[in-house]
Amino acid sequence: MRIKDERRSAVYDDELHLEAYRFEGIVQPFPAHFHEHYVLGLVERGERRLSCCGKELPLRAGDLLLLNPGDSHACEQRGGETLDYRSLTITQNVMRSLSEEIPEQTRSPAFLPMSCATASAACDFRTLHELILSRSREFEKEEALLLLLSRLFERCAPPFAAPQPPRGEIDAACAFMQRHFAERITLDRLCRCAHLSKSTLLRAFTREKGVTPYRYLEAVRIGETKSS
Questions:
Q1: Which helix (H) or strand (E) holds 78?
Q2: Residues near 210 by beta carbon (within 8 Å), at least 6 away in sequence
């Protein structure tokens, strides 16, 4: 049942392909439900008790709510203030496309089921939301969306784990250094041998061997000097 003083509005952005909602003066509870899309929400006023994925969370002014598709959630009012709330709904296909624009965000996009309470994130969200509601056509709007998502993935997503290269590629790098230890070996040359990028080779090699490629090469050279 809608209360007389409630105000609700929605704007679909045909450039970003997402929808922005604005709710003001809400008092009704929302029973358990889930969405097939992502929901990003900002509490502007009021307090709610959120049940999400088996956890109880308080929602207060300034909190961002991050929901993945399929996250079951419910909420009800706490205290005397009504709820003022902004939200964005983003389909799975659109979120997947957006995540491809974010460096190192190569996994399927997912948030920890939680609220994210930082003043900077709330400000970023509000700026983006107002640009959508005002039907801005400037690229500032897309920039704001990508900046917001990149910060939220960094702070409020499961730890990023880079794909693990096959051990054979690290073994190939070791064998190359063992064969060519007497020559001048560059990182470019080593990467071509291992078929890995520089950053991937350095991280994977150090994780696998416990030393950097150059320290490994030094050890090979010292070993060969002692045996000769």
A1: strand 73-78
A2: none
Q: Is 36 helix (H, G, I), strand (E, B) or coil?
A: coil
HSE (side-chain half, CA atoms, 13 Å) at 195: 7
CA dist 184 and 90 (Å) reads 52
Q: Is the model more confident about 164 or about 191? A: 191
* Residue given tokens 């969306």 in the structure block: 145
Give me the torsion for CA of 169, 103, 153, 8, rounded to 10°: -150
Secondary structure of residue 66 in the 3-state scheme: strand
Helices of type H across 100-197: 119-133, 140-156, 167-179, 187-194
**CA-closest candidate to residue 102, choices 152, 43, 174:** 152
Helix (H) or strand (E) holding 227: helix 213-227
Nearest in space to 171 (alpha carbons), one of 157, 189, 190: 190
pLDDT digits (tens, 9 = 90+) for 43-75: 999 999 999 888 888 999 999 999 999 888 999
What CA–CA distance (Å, rounded) separates 77 from 82? 8
Report the pLDDT averaged over residues 114-120. Answer: 72
- In the chain, the amino acid numbered 141 is K
Note if the pTM is more than 0.70. Answer: no
Provide the β-strand partners of residue 38: 90
DSSP 111: -
The SS3 assignment for 64 reads: strand
